[in-house]
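FAQ: What does a ligand-bound record look like?

Like this one, built around zinc ion:
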Amino acid sequence: MLAMDFRGPRRVRAVQKPMPEILHPEDAIVKVLRTCICGSDLHLYNGNVPDTRVGMTFGHEFIGEIVEIGAEVTEVKVGDRVMVPFNIACGRCICCKQGMYGNCYESNSESTAGGGFLGYSHTGGGHNGGQAEYARVPYANFGPTVIPVGMDLDDAVLLTDITPTGYQAAEMAGIQPGDTVVVFGAGPVGIMAARCCWLFGAGRVIILDQYDYRLEFAKNFAKCEAYNFRTDMDDPVMFLKKITDWIGPDACIDAVGAEAEGNVMQTITGRKLLLQGGSATALHWAINAVRKGGVISIVGVYGPTDNLIPIGNVLNKGLTIRANQASVKRHLPRMIDHVMNGILKPSLLITHRIPLEEVAEGYHIFSAKLDNCIKTVLIPPTANR
Ligand SMILES: NC(=O)c1ccc[n+]([C@@H]2O[C@H](COP(=O)([O-])OP(=O)(O)OC[C@H]3O[C@@H](n4cnc5c(N)ncnc54)[C@H](O)[C@@H]3O)[C@@H](O)[C@H]2O)c1
Ligand SMILES: [Zn+2]
Ligand SMILES: [Zn+2]
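The answer part, i.e. the structure of the complex:
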């Protein structure tokens, strides 16, 4: 089968690989119909995630048709078209029982932090992902969710990660009616987070990025205020204070993560010299801009190693920090309702549809933010495209 292959930082290609096999009675094999490239894939692509092995297939956002099931799979059957949440969750460990499906103990038992993730390095459990014609899906009785009749497949694939992630970012921001929320990062996750803030009763939503085309898109899609941190202001923290009566926003969402730009010291120590686990520029701005007693919601991904974070300001301002990988499965029923009722239309984010054969081009465009790219979908040759 054709599959994406990691050859080293910023080198990926599509190659022939053996078909995935059922390795456990609860596995299923899925024929992939749509799969996306995510900002999280860029951390792997850029070589910033430990133990990302040459030869791995990335891809944690995909939908497909079940073509084979293990002996103990009872909840889905061959022929079902399913959304596969990016986190692999057993559904029965102590984290899964609390709905923390991104922190499953079973699917990545050697990790003390995250659970298992499809296509996300050996720190994520070493599971090959869905940027391929076929993928093996563990715990098929729990994760894969049947795509409702009538749902657009482009909407469905965006429910496997960025839509629930944006929603959870807004949820973790603890928004009270009328609150002002600032979202850092106008990538697919930040744009969706800004959109979802309104669902929780926000009174004002502001988004920051460095790309005007993304800010313009966010303004239209999420009906929020949008500012370029490079050209609209000198100091993002002072700017955000100034436009919020010098008090600061009630909540800030970090939808950027460890590859943030905008601060020379963070960039040099975190991204060039690797003296810290990436640059925490957006998180810095969020902590310093938010009002006293405010909430910081982090969905932007950071590695497990040390980062320069202004923890003194967190303490002295009395901030609440909430952070996690999104628990996709927990949000799916509500996300499905919102899509079927027309409240959310995630597929509007898709700007690029690229054949899996051209995966290298797809990564290049999404990574370098070329051609006004917001979200890229890869379509395998076997997907009747
Ligand atoms: N927690 C989760 O479950 C989860 C799920 C999906 C993605 N993520 C993470 O969310 C983050 C965003 O993902 P994406 O797909 O939108 O990525 P993306 O790369 O498309 O977007 C990131 C955006 O942040 C902007 N940016 C860079 N530095 C900034 C700064 N200092 N302030 C404001 N904006 C800045 C970039 O210009 C870019 O537009 C990534 O870190 C990704 O790994 C987390
Ligand atoms: Zn993702
Ligand atoms: Zn579990």
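Follow-up question: can I read anything off the structure? Yes, for example: The first helix runs from residue 39 to 45.
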